[in-house]
Design goal:
The protein is about 60% helix and about 10% strand. The chain is mainly α and about 130 residues long. It is elongated, with a radius of gyration of 19 Å.
Length: about 130
């Protein structure tokens, strides 16, 4: 089954919960609630998790008397999903603006190896052969 983007069509609270689960890997309702800013009631968090399970963004398993919740996709795909969301939301889809911002924000110079890796990725995207 193909999963939708983790952050697509999510409310602010749903995005916050998904971010917590991505960061933690797995969490109980109480864990999620403790990490939420201005947390709603326990039952509200449980209901939001149930919605995310129904939408296919989150999976759960029984652990004793509680359930453990986790993202429905791998950590790698979750990172890609989060980055895609940031690029679309804050940079109007512009990858070059994201890269420029990251380079500008860094408090250190890029190493020769980092520059070479970035250049290789750019060349690959342009369809050039590396070497």
């Amino acid at each position: 089954m193909k999963h939708k983007d983790l952050f697509e069509d999510r409310s602010r609270r749903e995005r916050q919960i998904v971010e917590i689960l991505v960061r933690r890997g797995e969490a109980t309702v109480a864990d999620v609630r403790s990490d939420l800013p201005d947390p709603p009631s326990y039952s509200a968090v449980r209901a939001l998790l149930a919605v995310l399970v129904d939408k296919g963004a989150v999976k759960h398993r029984r652990h004793g008397r509680a359930y453990l919740y986790r993202p429905a996709i791998s950590p790698e795909r979750a990172r890609e999903s989060a980055l895609k969301h940031v690029v679309q939301t804050f940079f109007d889809g512009s990858v070059s603006e994201v890269i420029a911002s990251l380079v500008t924000l860094s408090d250190r110079r890029l190493s020769a190896d980092e520059i070479a890796r970035l250049q290789a990725l750019i060349d690959e995207k342009k369809g050039k052969k590396n070497g």
